[in-house]
Amino acid sequence: SQQGEEDPQALSIQEGENATMNCSYKTSINNLQWYRQNSGRGLVHLILIRSNEREKHSGRLRVTLDTSKKSSSLLITASRAADTASYFCATPQYAGGTSYGKLTFGQGTILTVHP
Amino acid sequence: DTEVTQTPKHLVMGMTNKKSLKCEQHMGHRAMYWYKQKAKKPPELMFVYSYEKLSINESVPSRFSPECPNSSLLNLHLHALQPEDSALYLCASSQVGKETQYFGPGTRLLVL
Predict the structure, then answer these.
(1) Which of A78, A101, A105, B52 has its CA at a distance of 20 to 30 angstroms from the CA of residue A1?
(2) DSSP A112
(3) Which chain A residues touch B104 with a CB distance below 8 Å?
(4) Which segments of chain A have a pLDDT < 50?
């Protein structure tokens, strides 16, 4: 089953506006990641926030994590047309002593930024 | 080199064909992954290789056969696929013990 659920499913804004996407998850996590996917292409890692962090910034991106509510948000400030893409949160699960994360992705938010 | 490459970009095959997808990375990553992604859905994990050994098979049908011939290469052999197997197939890699994965551009597969 999918670990993360995201909302909104789709978001349409004008260039220069801010875009906020939310992700909820069900089980305990070590970290949460956000990825971007341009139409029909591979995913690009944007940012990783660890369970002991509450907020993290990277350029125009701001990610928050609330482990008590099992939720995270991604804020893109001053959006550009080039930000048009699908955005996924992803959480790793570890099993059997493995040292890598089996990534489970949320359903994704489709962001459209109009010039 | 921080790229994961995948070939071919597009593939059309009949249900009786045998084909292979190829993935390559030169970042020294020893964990490699295959994902399947249907339209407007998130990627779903299929297989994980760690140190060239299959670590996770997410109950994938045997018509999909992965292979990791060396630390840089990952193949996915396809045989007797069904039309519902049409999807974008993504390869990814990571350092073992690190959570960030690096994705290739994918192979868009159409099964007729």
Answers:
(1) B52
(2) E
(3) 42
(4) 1-2
pLDDT tens for each residue of B24-50 = 999 999 999 999 999 999 999 999 999
**Contact check, Cβ <8 Å, B90/A45:** no
Question: Residue A115: what residue type?
Answer: P
Please provide the DSSP assignment of B23-72 as one string.
EEE-S---EEEEEEE-TTS--EEEEEEETTEEEEE-S--TTEEEEEEETT
Q: What are phi and psi of B56, to 5 degrees?
A: -135, 130
The CA distance from A73 to A71, in Å, is 7
- A80 interfaces chain B, CB cutoff of 8 Å: no
> What's the rounded Cα separation, in Å, for the pair B62 and B55?
16
- Could you tell me which residues of chain B have a Cβ less than 8 Å from any Cβ in chain A? 4, 6, 31, 33, 40-45, 48, 50, 55-56, 88, 90, 92, 94, 96-106, 108
What residues contact residue B44 under an 8 Å CB cut-off, 6+ apart? Answer: A105, B35, B36, B37, B58
Across the interface, of B42, B99, B108, the residue whose CB is closest to A31 is B99
- B83-94 confidence digits (pLDDT tens): 999 999 999 999
Query: Are B61 and B70 a contacting pair, CB within 8 Å?
Result: no
